[in-house]
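Allow me, if you will, to draw on your knowledge of protein folds for a short while. I have a record of one protein: its chain in single-letter code and its fold written as discrete structure tokens. I should value your view on which stretches of the chain appear to form regular backbone elements. Thank you for your consideration; the sequence and its tokens are set out here:
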Amino acid sequence: MSVSLYDISVTSYLQVLGAVEGFLEKGRVYCGENNIDLDKVVETRLYPDMNPFRFQVISVAHHSMGSMKGLASGEFAPPAGYGKPDYAGLQTLVAEAKASVASVTEDAAAELAGGQVLFALGEHKMPFTTENFVMSFSLPNLYFHATTTYDILRMQGVPLGKIDFMGSMRLGT
């Protein structure tokens, strides 16, 4: 069996987005039941030199929905234009990212295979093939930011486990 660009991008993004959607909701409920201020959670950092929870969730959306848009346009840059959403806004953003990624068909993803994507950060430019962009840049960033989101919620006491992080696995028959 060969693995397609759709398999490595869309299905992987959807698995992570579904998991993040689930643990954000568990976090919302837990914080509400335990009088934990969600506005403070949104600003929480694992360490002072790391970006806050808000940025982590925005980056999950950006490295899924934004990556698919980057594959189509041939250009990808750091997250911008997402504003400063509150916790509910972050949940909405993840739901929007999930819907956007889910709208990509296997045929549409196949058309992007073998293309080029340029990551640009100021003067720093990194050229990728679409497949290498997804496997060596987008997915590692997605997992990093999803993990950091999860970790900040765990730090608040939200009862999450590995299965919450893994989301809906793609089981074989």
Remarks:
- The domain at 5-104+130-165 is CATH 1.20.120.450 (Four Helix Bundle (Hemerythrin (Met), subunit A)).
- The radius of gyration is 16 Å.
